[in-house]
Design a protein that fits this description.
Order of helices and strands: EEHEEHEHH
Strand order of the largest sheet: 1-3-5
CATH class: Alpha Beta
Largest sheet: 3 strands, parallel
CATH topology: Transcription Regulator spoIIAA
Distance between the termini: 17 Å
Structural class: alpha/beta
Radius of gyration: 12 Å
């Protein structure tokens, strides 16, 4: 399981994506799970990072889901219509 940092805004998004991409490549197993519980400050850039991670995981033949998302992140994902792409049932 990969952990998100406490903050993902436009300022941190590029570095966060680079770190997560490296971690995704070396993640064992057939599914990548990201724990979003540390995330405290974010904007729509967090969704963009997570969607790109999902795309990369799929390209490498791995499943992808986000767990323990803060309620405001889940609400933002619903608003943009991407919640089903990111969050496991």
């Amino acid at each position: 399981m990969l952990l998100l940092p406490a903050t993902i805004t436009l300022r941190e998004s590029r570095d966060t994506l680079q770190l997560l991409t490296q971690a995704l490549q070396s993640a064992p197993g057939e599914e990548v799970v990201i724990d979003a519980s540390p995330l405290a400050q974010f904007d729509t850039s967090a969704l963009a990072v997570l969607l790109e991670c999902r795309r990369l995981a799929g390209a490498w033949g791995k499943g992808f889901s986000v767990r323990q998302a803060p309620p405001k992140l889940a609400e933002l994902a619903r608003l943009y219509g991407v919640d089903a792409l990111l969050f496991a049932d």
